[in-house]
Design goal:
It is a single chain. The protein folds into three domains: about 5-140, Rossmann fold (3-Layer(aba) Sandwich), CATH 3.40.50; about 150-270, 2-Layer Sandwich (Transcription Regulator spoIIAA); about 395-450, OB fold (Dihydrolipoamide Acetyltransferase, E2P) (Beta Barrel), CATH 2.40.50. The protein has 16 helices and 21 strands. The radius of gyration is 23 Å and the shape is globular. It starts with a helix and ends with a strand. Helices cover about 35% and strands about 25% of the residues. It is of the alpha/beta class.
Length: about 450
């Protein structure tokens, strides 16, 4: 270890929740590195601890406070040894709770919401000087313009597949969701910003980019021609970058699934045949109560158009069971929708009341025991469909992107076009290479393959 590295300030950054938090954590790390911080995986060695939090699931804030309690003990032990530790809470819990975190957890020095990360080095300096800092203002327009660009070395350290946020915030106001209150209104980055970052990623060895947004297909950025582009046009522009092998995007909303985006699925081979399109419920009554702005018939029509444009595309989704007012009939309609669509994969959750959202105050809250029973039934069906989809891949010859070493010696993990993990022998190539393989076996959550 060099003397410079040994004398560097160290930061431990824990990321909770969604892919956007993973991306945000990497950008925070970039900003802090320019201020002399290096990452550490040992929290006991950290001068700075940041918890990048998520507020989507039930009891998210309580989990953060529990972690803070454990970190406080480490902070006290460091203090006894004459070493300081600054603790910061960032992300959506920070935005939602604000100064309450400082009041409830005296060990915390800094609270910063998702739109303030371009100020992070300065906020950390103020906290280290003794100020208890709370910064939760919405300054979305400045955030991406002022965050430092990652270097090729930083991109290389993160692997061959990476996330790139193109859109942030949400204007949909689904009645179960806190995102509009913690991330703010929908904002789209410009084509120039996105292309510059994507080119930097590819120069650093990234071969697959997943575009991120709370409603990524609501992205509308200004192009080089001065027009407002849609996500489909952006995907065509990104596809022109040499050595960028693959493109994906998540998470989409049905009302923003336009013909330009469907056309990208039809024409771009580098756009992977995988679509995550959350529906949340199979009941029109519940969709209306959720303020989803679409019907089941409209959702199914989108699926039909996408499958016509890209035969063999894998469809993924999100489901919430037990939303207020959901009856047995409503739930059976969800099961019927799942059977009709036949998902390759999906995420499913019990409804949880999020303070400040309209759903939390609705009447006819569903009993926890009923939610549990419905979730088990739904997940059993979704798991059956996922296993069935995986089995249909056996015998197929496909290209996979090699990503990383496997758990066992001599293994590599690749990624199929349909987002499954594929286990292969490490003699097939090295991370970053796209190789042709034949799928030999299918497990519930992965595939195994040999050279084609």
């Amino acid at each position: 270890m060099s003397e410079q590295l040994a004398n560097s300030k160290k930061v431990f950054l824990k990321t909770y929740g969604c892919q956007m938090n993973v991306y945000d954590s990497s950008r925070m790390q970039d900003a802090l590195e320019q201020d002399g911080y290096v990452a550490t995986s040992a929290i006991e060695d950290a001068d700075l601890v940041l918890l990048n939090t998520c507020h989507i699931r039930e009891k998210a804030a309580e989990k953060v406070y529990s972690d803070i309690g454990r970190i406080r003990q480490i902070k006290e032990a460091r203090a006894e040894a004459g070493k300081s530790m600054t603790i910061g809470v960032t992300g959506c819990v920070a935005q939602a709770e604000g100064a309450e975190i400082i009041a409830r957890a005296p060990a915390v020095n800094l609270v910063a919401g998702p739109q303030t990360y371009h100020h992070l080095p300065d906020l950390v300096r103020r906290a280290r000087e003794g100020e208890r800092v709370v910064e939760t203002e919405f300054e979305i327009e400045e955030k991406f313009e002022q965050l430092p660009a990652a270097t090729s070395t930083q991109h290389r350290a993160r692997g061959v597949a990476a996330f790139l946020t193109v859109q942030e915030g949400c204007d949909k106001f689904c009645t179960f969701c806190v995102v509009p209150y913690t991330r703010g209104a929908e904002v789209s980055r410009s084509v120039e910003q996105i292309m510059d970052e994507a080119r930097g990623m590819v120069a650093g060895g990234v071969r697959e980019i997943t575009l991120l947004g709370q409603n990524v297909n609501a992205w509308h950025g200004t192009g080089a021609d001065g027009r407002e582009w849609g996500l489909g046009e952006l995907l065509f522009e990104l596809s022109s970058i040499p050595e960028l092998e693959r493109l994906r995007y998540t998470t989409s909303h049905p009302v923003d699934m336009d013909e330009g985006l469907i056309d990208a699925h039809r024409k771009l081979q580098c756009l992977m045949p995988y679509l995550h399109l959350p529906v949340q419920s199979g009941s029109n009554k519940i969709l209306k109560a959720m303020n989803r702005h679409h019907t089941i018939a409209e959702y199914l029509a989108i699926i039909e158009r996408v499958r016509e444009a890209r035969p063999g595309i894998a469809i993924s989704g999100d489901f919430i069971v037990g939303f207020p007012g959901e009856t047995d009939k409503d739930f059976e309609e969800t099961l019927a929708l799942v059977r009709e669509v036949n998902y390759a994969s999906a995420f499913s959750f019990k409804y949880s009341q999020r303070p400040g959202t309209p759903g939390a105050d609705m009447e006819a809250q569903v009993l926890e025991s009923v939610k549990n029973e419905r979730l088990q039934r739904l997940q059993a069906l979704l798991n059956e469909q996922q296993e069935s989809f995986n089995k249909t891949c056996v015998g197929k010859t496909v290209d996979i992107l090699l990503e990383k070493q496997g758990k066992r010696q001599g293994q590599l993990i690749g990624r199929s076009p349909w987002l499954q993990s594929v286990i292969v022998d490490d003699t097939l190539g090295a991370p970053g290479e796209v190789v042709r393989v034949k799928i030999t076996t299918a497990a519930p959550n992965s595939l195994t393959a040999v050279a084609a």
